[in-house]
Sequence to fold (150 residues):
Amino acid sequence: MGKGTITSALLYAFFAAVGNGLFAFGQKKAILVEHPFIFILSSSAVGMVLVAVACLFLPKPDVSSFVRDNYRWVLLSGVGSGLTSIGFYFLYSRCGASCYVIYAVLSIVATSIVVGIIVFKESFNVYHFLSVVTAMATVVLFTVGQVKSS
Fold:
């Protein structure tokens, strides 16, 4: 697995999943306004404050050299984060939080397959392959369920 154990990966994924659930819950309960991105900007500001507070407990980096060495990747990741936030907003507000399963599987393909395996040549075995196949089956079953319930 590389840098961590499966236990740490499960713990970090759980932590992120709880955060995502809180985001979806908050967005669903928020009062809709004419401009949809006010919610994204406001919740992102809260998230930035939370991360800034967490930074107080970590080693102090040389920010200028970090920015100089990583500005391309920061910009790319910022675009990705923005696209994710915008996509989440429309997914949750127009389709409901239950449709998250579609995002999750597409994210598996985009992140695990394209970024992890194709770009970074990370390991991939038959069990990984089967997990992707069953994830795709999830989208098919979810779609059938949506059609049957309408």
